[in-house]
Fold this sequence. Notes:
Order of helices and strands: HEHHEEHHEHHEEHH
Distance between the termini: 62 Å
Helix content: 55-70%
Low-confidence stretches: 1-20
CATH class: Mainly Alpha
Oligomer: single chain
CATH topology: Outer membrane efflux proteins (OEP)
Number of strands: 6
Structural class: alpha+beta
CATH superfamily: Outer membrane efflux proteins (OEP)
Amino acid sequence: xxxxxxxxxxxxxxxxxxxxxxxxGPDFSRPAARPDKSYxxxxxxxxxxxxxxxxxxFDPNAKLPADWWGLFQCPKLNDVIREAxxxxxxxxxxxxxxxxxxxxxxxxxxxFYPQADGAFAATRQRYTPLKMGQNLQPSVFNLFTLxxxxxxxxxxxxxxxxxxxxxxxxxxxxxxTERAAYLTLxxxxxxxxxxxxxxxxxxxxxxxxxELQKRQVQLAEVQAQAGxxxxxxxxxLQSQLASDKATIPQLxxxxxxxxxxxxxxxxHTPAEWKAPRIDFAEIxxxxxxxxxxxxxxxxxxxxxxxxxxxxxxxxxNIGVATAAMLPSVTLSGTYGANNSSLGQLGAANATxxxxxxxxxxxxxxxxxxxxxxxxxxxxxxxTTALYQQTVLGAFAQVADTLRAVQHDAEVLEAQDEAVxxxxxxxxxxxxxxxxxxxxxxxxxxxxxxYHQAKIADLQxxxxxxxxxxxxxxALGGGWWNAK
Length: 483
């Protein structure tokens, strides 16, 4: 009974498709955009607090440029990214993969045209009449054959159309993979250049701090020898000095690793190429941040578009698997000539031709085709879930980076206050020292505290820059606004 139901089901589908000229399998519909009105629960913020003299505003009406790194107004950053986009092997591999998928799609379109072949054969044979029961002498002769054949697979149920549809979806997937590689490369370079500037500034500030601590240790030793301070104070200061000295090689190692990473991203070895030196003063923090609407995000982020293309391909594969269960029809024809003399191939009595129509239908495949179709359906369900997970992850990433930019500003505001308080304390102690109300060790302690606050401030500034980069990446990088 189950087999009879299957026969009637697919027989009815086949009859309808022949009449309507449709393609079996689901027609793919692009997933609808999310209905969210904001990325963050309770609504998105419109601006950050003022920190380091800058308020960053979130503007949903502004366009995120494809070359978003230009918003940092740093020519050196622009130059490194431009060079990397030309020479990075990873990006070149993604571009080659895209071209490959496009060529496969073009090759797939060939199934919609008749396939024609030509053939020429020349043979020399010895014919023995005894094989046919004739008592005659054997003969040797030449046979020349020139022929052409054509065949056409009638796509009755759209299986071939679904196959090409799947190839088209794969090309879309590779196109967005290339966009993702482009975005990742540019973001990695921007983050590395920012880190480079931060490490250099931190090394410089730490070296200044160490010089102050050295003088502080010397003063403490004098005081200990004079009996005005315990020697334990000297040991405490020496321990702190040694600890801060140890941070210099660590920071230098991070700086070297960053330079090596930049060389690799730019398509070079560290021995042949070195990134240009960049300072924080050369990088401008973007104050107006373009923020796409939530309804646009699903059509802009490369990873979501990759998942959508994979979903489209999975949908097309259901049609391919369904068509494989239905009859297939092929039309073919042959025309040619053969003769024992090459010069007589054009003779009227040498020609031959033939026309044929072949129809095949699976009758019993041991369940192979049926379960292949079921597997295609389950793959579609899996891909649907993965698409939804990608969308959820994308919205969470945008929400995280929006909050991070806000919190960076709040932390930097507090750090700025700490730096300003340490600066005022230093000036006050210096004034008291000049007035004879404080000793020199008090001045150096205040100076050390000021430099420590400056180092913490530098780290927060670098994080604010990098989280701004992360926001541009989370929004998709602006490729849709490319000129």
